[in-house]
Give the backbone structure.
Amino acid sequence: MDFSTIIMLAAGPGKKLQETLGGEIGALFFLAVIFVSLTLFWKRAFTAFIGFALFAMLVSVFIFKPQLVQSLGSDGFSWLFEAYLK
């Protein structure tokens, strides 16, 4: 096995720190989203509630799961243009 491959496969302390802090930040973000959503829902600001919920979903997908966005984009592109790609 090549040395550079071993380096790429090893999970260093930076990767572990990123995973741990990412989980904690995700939990705090989720808590803030719940608080703001309940506040807007309680005030009966339904339009603002729906807008905030959609914004929170979009932000959470782009920030916490960028691989999902990338795979959805590539799958959608290949599905739309599969006739032209052949």
Observations:
- The two ends are 37 Å apart (CA to CA).
- The chain has five helices and no strands.
- Helices lie at 3-9, 13-42, 46-64, 66-80, 82-85.
